[in-house]
Write a structure and sequence with these properties.
alpha+beta; 7 strands; globular
Amino acid sequence: MQTISYRMPLSDQAELLVWFVTERGAVISYSVVLVARHQQAWHTIRVYDNAHGHNEFHRHTLAGGKQPAKPFLSGDFGEAMRAARAEVLAGYEKMVEAWRS
């Protein structure tokens, strides 16, 4: 097994955190997390993962915190991880704005 993690700055106020484990080249566990800076601290905006054995995501809000999980792209964990990363890269500004409101 191999564990890989990295941080990708998206702006001076947002970052993408990616962590995954592979076995024989296949992703077996992952998390893709969007965080944003607010009042001198980093806050979780959105989390995509397979912590419960299936692909799901959680929205977070400034006022309400972590929201209930919703399914995300059933099937292959590697495909879901890459899709989650692409979704955050394409829409992180809107995701952060939704978190604030």
